[in-house]
Each structure stands twice: as C-alpha cells, then as structure tokens.
Amino acid sequence: MDRLEEYIRKNRDDLDIYKPSPVLWRRIKEDLNTGKKPARRWLSIAATVAVIIGTSLIFYQIGKMSERRDLLSASGSDGTARQQLKEAEAYYNNQINALYHEAAPLLTANPELEQELNSDLLRIDSIYKDLREDLKDNIANQEVVEALIQNYMIRIKILEDMLVILRENDTNGEKNNDYEL
Fold first, then answer.
1. Residue of 58, 59, 62 whose CA lies nearest to 146
2. Residue ranges of the domains in the chain?
3. Given this model, what pLDDT does residue 32 score?
4. Would you tell me which of 14, 69, 99, 140 could form a disulfide with 159, CB atoms 3.0–4.6 Å apart?
5. Are 108 and 114 in contact (CB under 8 A)?
6. Cβ(145)–Cβ(68) under 8 Å?
7. Is the four-CA dihedral 133, 134, 135, 136 of positive or negative sign?
8. Which letter, b or e, does each residue of 23-48 get, where b requires 16 or more Cβ atoms within 10 Å of its Cβ?
9. Please, what's the largest Cα pairwise distance for the chain?
10. Per-residue pLDDT band at 178 (split at 50, 70, 90)
11. Rounded to whole angstroms, how far apart are CA atoms 170 and 138?
12. pLDDT given at position 12
C-alpha cells in the first residue's frame, strides 16, 4: 500500500468534512454528458450497417458466380459457352471498372497506393492471359472457366479492399483537419 492511500485511510473523517455545492455537481454532470459516447454509438451503427451491406454483396456475388458456373456447365455447345463466357466477362469487367473509377479520385491523393494497386492488377492480368490461352484449347473446360471467374473475383476483392483503405484514410484525414488550429 502506498503512502497516500494509507494517509487517506487514516484521515478519512477529517477529509470528509467538506461537501461540494450543487452547482459543482451540476457542472460535473454536464461535463460527463458531453463525452464522445453519442459519436461512438453512431460510429458503431455505421460500422454494423457497412458489415451487413458488405456481407450481402459477398453473398450476392457468390450467388451470381454459381449461377454463371451452372450456366456454363449446363451448356452443351461451344457457341453457347462462348456467349455465356462473354457475358460473364462483360459483367465482371463492368464491376471492376466501376470500382476503379470510384477509387480513382482517392488514389490521386495516394500515389504509392495507386502504384501498388496497378502492380497487383498487372500481375493478375498476366495470369488472366495465361488462362485465356488455356481456354482456347477447350471452351467447355469447366476448371479453366472457374479459374477465369476466380481471377475476376480476386480483382474485385483487391479493388474493394483498396477502397476501404482509401476511405478510411480519407475519413481519418478529415478528422485530423477538424481539430487543427
């Protein structure tokens, strides 16, 4: 036990003779109520909504991917399989382009992240080209088609993760600017 605590215990009766005024208690109560609890509450609600939306989008993407896989496996002719593959590529390319355009303004403020993103996408593009070469041999090869779709899903995941990081950096930058004098 330290000396201060011991002193307080011994002299408790002498120290408790003063009572704070009601005005002081009111000010203390007001100071406690102006804490950051409401902001933290709204932040937790926003995070919960973001998690729910993100999870819903992931399940939606998985459902779309399995639909496309089922369509490709059910098709018997090369012409139908090629058409379905073109539709799948158009769909995923539109999603990738939309995500990239959404990230573009945020990437201008972070050139190092833009360079890293572009290098990752270039590596994935080289894998995609190899898969396309394998697909030329046999359009009905389900494994190659699944690998192509997985390639698109990886691109989308990278872009979504990058957007989350950029939005957090952008939000943190705004918060820091609010407190500067």
1. 62
2. 20-169
3. 74
4. 99
5. yes
6. no
7. positive
8. eeeeeeeeeeeeeeeeeeeeeeeeee
9. 96
10. very low
11. 46
12. 81
Q: What is the mean pLDDT of residues 86-95?
A: 84
| Nearest-angstrom CA–CA distance, 170 and 110 | 10
Q: Which residues contact 142 (CB under 8 A, 6 or more apart)?
A: 69, 72, 73
The answer, yes or no, to whether residue 149 has pLDDT greater than 60, is yes
In angstroms, the CA 77 to CA 74 distance is: 9
- Nearest Cα neighbor of 144 from 129, 159, 156, 155 is 129
Higher pLDDT, 1 or 106: 106
For residues 93 and 153, what is the distance between their CA atoms, to the nearest angstrom? 10
Residue 107 CB partners (closer than 8 Å, separation 6+):
113, 114, 117, 166
Answer for the pair 113, 165: CB distance below 8 angstroms, yes or no: yes
Block residue for tokens 């007001």: 30
Tokens for 81, please give them.
């399989």
Confidence grade of residue 36 (pLDDT, cut at 50, 70, 90): low
- 71-90 burial, b at 16+ Cβ within 10 Å, e below that, comes to bbeebeeeeebeebbeebee
The gap from C-alpha 99 to its chain's centroid, in whole angstroms, comes to 12
Task: Please work out, in degrees rounded to the nearest 5, the angle formed at the alpha carbon of residue 142 by the alpha carbons of 137 and 144.
Answer: 55
